[in-house]
Amino acid sequence: MRIDSPKTGERFCPLFPEMRKALEEAFDKAPQGSVYSLPKVTTKSNLGTGLARILKGAGIKQWPRLFVNLRSTRRTELGDEFPSHIVDAWMGHSAKVADKHYKQVTDNHFELGAKFGSHTLTDTVAVPPPHKTTIPSVLLGTEVCSWLGFASLMTPTGIEPVLPP
């Protein structure tokens, strides 16, 4: 889809499946011969007011900064699947802006982090392979250090050189 923005100019972004479906449904309901999926939406439309009305009608409590948070959620989802430079090009912002305003840490990130390096993961969980290093980290626990072959470096208080091994 082509996006014309007064701030960033013209850019292209994939039409994601859930959006494609919604736009096709809207286009099917548009007046015959219409070239727009949402003919009532113009550059002068207040989309925030319209979305707030829809949320209220659906019984959903309005969250703060409606469109910023929607954009942030999509940026985070895309960032989990594609390299940052691609997502930033699609979204029309720089990496610095993405870092400051859009990237989020989700519950799923915590769940994956808690399972990172586990021997009990099922094949249905997409987790990167354990971090390989030759230098132990103070952040790695005893079990992980043992699994990576660093057990001999562990002192009673951890990897920190407080006591000799």
Question: Any key phrases for this structure?
Answer:
mainly alpha; two-stranded antiparallel ribbon; 5% strand; 165 residues
Account of the 3D structure:
There is one protein chain. The longest helix is centred in the middle third of the chain and has 14 residues, at 66-79. The relative contact order is 0.07. By secondary structure, the protein is mainly alpha-helical. The chain is globular and about 55 Å long. A hairpin with a 3-residue loop joins strand 1 (2-5) and strand 2. The protein has helices spanning 17-29, 47-57, 66-79, 84-91, 95-102, 107-115, 142-147, and strands at 2-5, 9-12. It has seven helices and two strands; from the N terminus they run E-E-H-H-H-H-H-H-H. Helices cover 42% and strands 5% of the residues. The model is unreliable at 131-154 (pLDDT under 50). The N and C termini lie far apart (61 Å). Strands 1-2 form a two-stranded antiparallel ribbon.
In short:
The protein is built from seven helices and two strands. It is mainly α and 165 residues long.
Backbone CA Rg:
24 Å
What is the mean pLDDT?
A: 75
Tell me how many strands there are: 2
Number of alpha- plus pi-helical segments: 7
Order of SSEs, N→C? EEHHHHHHH
Main beta sheet: strand number and arrangement?
2 strands, antiparallel
Residue share in helices?
40-55%
Quickly give the structural class: mainly alpha
Cα shape: globular
Strand order of the largest sheet: 1-2
Poorly predicted spans: 131-154
Task: Report how far the terminal alpha carbons are from each other.
Answer: 61 Å
Percent in strands = under 5%
